[in-house]
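hey team, just a heads up i'm posting the complex here instead of the shared drive bc the drive is being weird again. everything in one block, sequence lines first with there labels, then the predicted structure for the whole assembly after. its two chains so it's a bit long, scroll down
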Amino acid sequence: MKFKRVLALSMACMLGIATLAGCGKTPTGGTTSDGPMGLDTGATFEEDQIIDYTMFIAMPGSEINDGNEIQQLIAEKTGVRVKETWLTGQTAAEAVGSILASGELPDFIDGGDGMMQLYDAGVLVPWDDYIEKYPNIKELYSDVEWESFRQDDGHIYWANIFTNTYGESQATSHNDEAFWIQCRVLEWDGYPEIKTLDQYFDLLTRYAEANPTMEDGTPVIPYTMLCEDWRYFCIENAPEFLAGYPNDGSVIVDVDNMKIVDYNTIPEAKEYFSILNREYNNGIIDKEFGTQTYDEYIAKLSTGRVLGMCDQWWDFAYTVNDIFIQQNLDDIGCNYVPLGLTLEEGKEQMWHIYGDTLNNSSGVGVTTSCADPDRAFQFLNDLLDQEIHDLRFWGVEGVDYLVDENGMYYKTPEMRDQWADSSYQASHRCVYSYLPQWLGTSRDGKNAMQPQEQESEFFAGLAEPLVNCFEAYGAHGYPDMVGSVEKELGPWFPMYSYSNAMTTATPGGVAWTRMGETKHEWLPKVVMASTADFESTWNSYMEAYASCKPEDFIAEMQEELERRASVGQ
Amino acid sequence: MDLNSKKKEKKQVSSSKKPMKEKITTVELHRQAVLLGFMVIYVIYGIVFYYLPLGGWIMAFQNYKIKDGLFHSQLVGLDKFKFLFEDELFIRDIRNTLAMGIINLVVTFVMAIVFAILLNEVRNKFGKKLVQTISYLPHFLSWIIVTGIIHDALSNTGIINELLMNFNIIKSPINYFAHEGYFWPIVAFANVWKETGWNAIIYLAAIVSIDPSLYEAAEMDGAGRWAKIKHITLPGIRPTIMILLVMNIGNVLNAGFEVQYLLGNGLVRKVSETIDIYVLNWGVSQSDYSLGTAAGIFKSVVAIILIVIANAVAKKTGEEHLF
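-- predicted structure starts here --
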């Protein structure tokens, strides 16, 4: 008994100490007075003047520490500090639904697919007056683009924050979907031209046969895919790309006839799944693909064992690439490069979208529970100030980056490693990644708004095997690896901004939800069927799919396509 | 037998006192003013937190929109219920919920009783305490952790597959979460692992309160361990078993949300989705709170019916009952 008590007491003490240590505040008093770089306006705020706002982001992310250094610097300059909380273990719509039901709203919210729910509930503050009042906010979009955010009650309630280019585009990344492959696999085969899905799987098979294990003896996984929840696009939407169409997300737009086409039932879809089925039965595809969670998937990728997968860059790269650096896996060529595949050779494809994609179905909004919306919008305006923007994305000058004699920003290798370190990210970096931001060229006309787009930084930051790979293919960045055709996209692009916002209030929305549920169940089943059963499984899937009434969904998408096309003219 | 007759005696004594209490006089009220005051607080509490929220049930008959509120949303009659019962998915989810609810009820119930009796037979005090403590610890873990452990243990490189392969029982790892047939047993196992120790506590307490002289008398008559369990322990905890059973039967439709939500995936959706997950997908996620409320009303009504039936059966068979 006594022993138990002593044990319990000592454990309680340890817990207490751990909690206290976690709260350890970085001293902030001094930075205000001798901070080297005040805003042009010179305004600094004392701790008791700083307003604390809350923000919910309907995407998974990492919370930063209280007392984060750059967050504190930004707070002193702008007078506002935002506590971000992220999605955990739910879908965006579920999270938004429960926030609305509870009635406890954060000050800022990015509801992802749930923005329409927030609008319907009438809890968002209209932006209209503030857009006029604050020049940096107005500058984000052209008048036409702002119009596209207008809801049917005539107001604007949110602004999307991504793929928005200031000045000249500096894009070196492929922030889209692709079939990815580790560059060591390409190197091993002497950098072959991989154009079709068959060639891709053939290469993976041959590599895995020759190199069945990692250095430490764990077997490689030639190909895996994610089917969890909304991220099942990794298995689901490849047919639209393989058929040569851009990422309209939920449908294909047949531009010649201005018709919506359902990519789930086109012949390319069946061929794609028959290839997956074949490779699954050949043992090339991860046996666990159908049941793994996102965390397990990322954990697998982070070990460098997975040779290839189909995914969106943003879905894996930010986490996985940083871990590769920490584990030195980048040096042996575990980094992924994108391939723009089709089913038959010589077909044009549009995996990569050049220029900005305006997804007007989601973005950041200010809620009615924010006591002083004007202050909130002023803060959004301040965040787009070049100095604050540099603080968010480049860090502190002299600590996170240096400036050469031509005014160009650069990082030393140590700075880059530190920048990628997860504990440093929590204690020092504060990106406010879901608040308004720019890509493209900085207002100084030289640097890039974000370091990953700075060409010198981009190549200096790449591991050697990646550089070799880009050189071998004569590529200046990820987009060149994909090699998509540059085509003007219609004003309707992307159609997913409409389907994402659908709710079960319309028959099309009901069909859309049912189609999703059916595909979640059947797509992995189709892949995992035995070779002999593929035909019959596919037919059962098609039957189940047809019973969801996809025609209701397609009809509503067609209507929206026609509406958007007519607005654009 | 002895026990039962004793109980009946007690009851008669208490019921014979009842008529005296029924005289409510102002003097008596005055005398109990303080007590009544305390009671009023709880009555108000009950009204505010249990009965007023029932007003929200009106949502099920509206097309509720947050913007319009409870008073201005459009009334749609039984449309939401119609949507539910015309939806194959909802019917399927009722089946899943009932199936998992019943399996869980039976398995956790039996396991808890068996475990309590076995533990009671352990003579070594230290071993008994140790086992009891360890066995109820999982109760304090949240489901997210338990499902994480189970997910890992059953994965292709998890302990179960490794063991089976080392013993040459299987050739290649089995992906347990990809087969519909395994899902219900996995959920039942998860429940048993987490709750057996905890549920056993109440039975252990009931066993301890059995008069030791009964055991001694049985021993004199030459009863072995088995006979003592059968004729003294089990009848002794029978009232406890019956009350818990009646109460738990009402909970059958609350077969769970977290376990199925966290362990389920697209492949086993057909058997893993419960009513609560349906409400999440079609109600909360789509801001269709009316649909969620309708499903909630359905669950409550079924629960009440089940409890009343179970109680009536218990009453008929002369067992301990709730009301």
